[in-house]
Amino acid sequence: MSENRRFLLKRRPDGEPVPEDFEFIHAEIPQPPAGGFVVRNRYASLDPAQRGWMDDAPSYMPPIALGDAVRATTVGQVHSSDSPEFKPGDWVMGLNALEDYSTVMPDGFTSAIDTSLVDSPSRFLSAMGAVGLTAYFGLLEVAKPQAGETLLVSGAAGAVGSVVGQIGKIKGCRTIGIAGGPEKCRKLIERFGYDVAIDYRGKDVETLAAEIGEAAPDGVDMIFENVGGDVMDAELMNLAENARIVLCGLISEYNAPEKIGVRNLWQVLAKQATIHGYLISAYVDRFAEGGAQMAQWIAEGKVVMDEDIQEGLENAYPAFMRLFSGANTGKLILKIA
Q: How far is residue 336's CA from residue 99's CA, in Å, rounded to a whole number?
């Protein structure tokens, strides 16, 4: 390519993002900075966290600046370099942006990857990347599952939730997944091996809580929370004593103009449960360890992860919105080139 297409944040979304919040521009291909390099992005991860980065609000990362390309984890190849560590053609993964070319400094979040280990470089954005490892470390290191315990996962058909359930089964847990719609619930059972699938759509908190209670009459020992809102309220009514809650995401609230939160938080007190706010960034120094184990489980057929690959940087907005409509059918990835 002779130009750099960039998907910019033009204004901060008010509730659900609309096309007018973004701008698609054509710019010159950047030159490598002193000691740095330029990456030709091939694939970009589309994640709920990106919606939070668009707000000017306190968070674990600074907001995306207005006029900047939307931040994203990407996989690509070094295009040009002024770094002895990274040569043109090398495959890398890092926190870059929704654009054809990104400028990178070697002391950032970018690392070399070996694409010969996988059938597609996109795997480093799904099972072998931060998404798969979010499930791995969140369940094993935070929830600490024990054989025979009951694990409840919201957003269970999503990229993280589907892997959490599979690792739970590897560790001998009984798994209950909550997802939206009969097709996703069918997939929970047939593809991801969940013991029970519960469809949350069209149900109030009381109805959903009752269904969870039927599936787990003795309560749930662990909750891996990706959704929040009414779903989490229903879950909290079914805690076992000393339950552990891994708070990984709250996607139901990301586009809400007013953050409602949960009403049944008192159940955490009543059941002496714990809530652990969890970010994968706490385990970056152990990615090689987790990636090796995930690779082994994938090779053995114990873990599968579907990828929903949308094509074209010009389709960044409709692709991103699949996260919030529930249209995505696996780890959502944008194929840039």
A: 8
Q: Which amino acid is at 301?
A: G
Say how far apart CA 324 and CA 252 lie, in whole Å: 8
How many angstroms separate the CA atoms of 138 and 226, rounded? 12
pLDDT at 83: 95
Sequence-distant (6+) residues with CB within 8 A of 285 are none
Q: How far is CA 293 from CA 167, 227, 290, in A?
A: 11, 27, 5
Give me the helices (H) in 126-158, please: 130-137
Q: What angle do CA 284, 289, 292 make, to 5 degrees?
A: 125
The pTM of the whole model exceeds 0.90: no
Q: CB neighbours (10 Å) of residue 104?
A: 26
Report the candidate in 206, 239, 237 with the shortest Cα–Cα distance to residue 220: 239
206: closest CA among 158, 238, 179, 176?
238
Please give the mean pLDDT across all residues of the chain: 94
CB 188 within 8 A of CB 165: yes
Neighbours of 52 (CB within 10 A): 19
Q: What is the pLDDT of residue 176?
A: 98
DSSP string, 210-268: HHHHHH-TT-EEEEEESS-HHHHHHHHTTEEEEEEEEE---GGGTT-SS----S-THHH
Distance, CA of 188 to CA of 184 (rounded, Å): 6
Q: Which of 318, 309, 307 is nearest to 336 (CA)?
A: 309
Q: DSSP class of residue 58?
A: -
CB atoms within 10 A of CB 118: 16
Closest CA to 188 of 161, 212, 228, 167: 161
Token pair in block for residue 223: 């909750």
Contact 165, 177 (CB under 8 A): yes
Task: Please give the pLDDT value at position 30.
Answer: 97
